[in-house]
């Protein structure tokens, strides 16, 4: 068992405000909020390169670009109260190999969290999240990126025990037997969701596993909306908004409305090129512009944070790691956002959605 050391900014919030160059009011509001990230991809670096999540890292070889944006000590120091930690699928493997690899990776991720039981807890529901927070722990949801991790057979999803996985992103950066990716690297026309993909959505609905429509093509997106159980909320966990910056990865207003109509939520990611086209890093204000457009189009109940930390992203220059997150609150306050809206975006919207599906 490991006990992680970190600076607890709750003991001196004024010092944290000075360090970040923001107001004490912004830090106080941040510390009083549920702060939940819908998509953290750091586990992939543990798997591939042995990046020790329990050790505090610096900015890495590339100045916090691509990786080294998150680790467990910095999560605690940033007072990130919850996150969905992702197991990403390697599409180059065979279907059977993907399934076996997922089972191993799920066990490995559980082992990583088991090293720090006093400070981290895997959770499945909003109620479990609140219990973890009451115990002073970071609440860790688990997600899968790439539904083809478990598409080998009709019963492949049964490898997920007791709703341990909160959500599955149907497709990732490559087209699979489930559907077509939004990536420009796809071959051929956009044929959308396949028949196997439609059945997969129905199985996820039966198991109360969230369907995440990040990365899927626009036709596939609306195909999935059509077959999805209308009583369950949809997620798009990490994306940008096309009306703010036109990009193949970003959602149109029609897609925003489709998610909101189910009572779901949309997480805005921190990849600079998706936010405003910057190659070397935009400013964090771009994140708030995307969030603000979601609020304008569908209301303040449907916007969330989905960073994609450590997902090979180039984050804003003034938000290189999770430690600078309170700067987002300052930017929201500067735009005149009411505190209630800010707290919804930081975490309450996501908790509402989780409670609606699982309690």
Structure overview:
This protein is an alpha/beta fold and 359 residues long. It has a single domain, classed as Metal-dependent hydrolases (TIM Barrel, Alpha-Beta Barrel). Helix content is 38%, strand content 11%. Strands 1, 2, 3, 4, 5 and 6 form a 6-stranded parallel beta sheet that branches. Helix 7 links the parallel strand 5 and strand 6. The protein starts with 12 loop residues before the first helix and ends with a helix. The mean pLDDT is 97.
List the helices and strands and how they pair.
Layout: H1 13-20, H2 24-31, E1 36-40, H3 43-49, H4 72-77, E2 82-88, H5 95-114, E3 120-122, H6 126-134, E4 138-145, E5 167-169, H7 195-207, E6 210-212, H8 218-227, E7 235-239, H9 253-261, E8 265-268, H10 272-275, H11 285-298, E9 303-305, H12 326-334, H13 339-358
Parallel strand pairs: 1-2, 2-4, 3-4, 4-5, 5-6, 7-8, 8-9
Helix pairs in contact: 1-2, 2-12
């Amino acid at each position: 068992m490991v006990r992680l050391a970190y600076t607890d900014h709750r003991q001196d919030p004024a010092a944290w405000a000075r360090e970040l160059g923001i107001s004490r009011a912004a830090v106080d509001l941040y510390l009083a909020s549920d702060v939940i990230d819908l998509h953290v991809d750091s586990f992939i670096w543990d798997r591939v390169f042995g990046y020790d999540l329990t050790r505090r890292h610096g900015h890495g070889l590339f100045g916090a670009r691509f990786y080294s944006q998150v680790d467990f000590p910095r999560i605690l120091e940033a007072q990130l109260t919850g996150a969905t930690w992702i197991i990403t699928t390697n599409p180059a493997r065979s279907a059977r190999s993907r399934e076996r690899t997922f089972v191993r990776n799920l066990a490995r991720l559980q082992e990583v969290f088991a090293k720090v039981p006093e400070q981290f807890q895997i959770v499945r529901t909003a109620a479990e999240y609140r219990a973890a927070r009451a115990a002073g722990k970071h609440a860790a949801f688990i997600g899968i990126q790439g539904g083809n991790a478990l598409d080998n057979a009709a019963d492949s999803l049964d490898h997920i025990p007791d709703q341990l996985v909160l959500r599955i992103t149907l497709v990732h950066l490559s087209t699979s037997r489930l559907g077509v990716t939004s990536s420009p690297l796809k071959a051929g026309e956009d044929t959308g969701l396949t028949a196997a993909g439609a059945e997969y959505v129905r199985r996820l609905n039966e198991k109360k596993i969230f369907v995440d429509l990040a990365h899927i093509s626009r036709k596939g997106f609306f195909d999935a909306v059509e077959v999805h159980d209308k009583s369950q909320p949809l997620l798009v966990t990490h994306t940008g908004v096309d009306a703010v910056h036109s990009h193949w990865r970003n959602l149109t207003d029609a897609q925003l409305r489709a998610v909101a109509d189910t009572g779901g939520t949309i997480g805005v990611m921190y990849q600079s090129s998706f936010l405003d086209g910057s190659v070397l890093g935009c400013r964090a204000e771009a994140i708030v512009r995307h969030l603000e457009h979601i609020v304008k189009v569908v209301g303040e109940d449907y916007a969330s944070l989905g960073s994609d930390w450590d997902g090979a992203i180039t984050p804003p220059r003034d938000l290189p790691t999770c430690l600078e997150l309170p700067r987002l609150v300052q930017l929201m306050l500067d735009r005149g956002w009411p505190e209630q809206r800010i707290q919804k975006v930081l975490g309450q919207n996501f908790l509402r959605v989780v409670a609606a599906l699982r309690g």
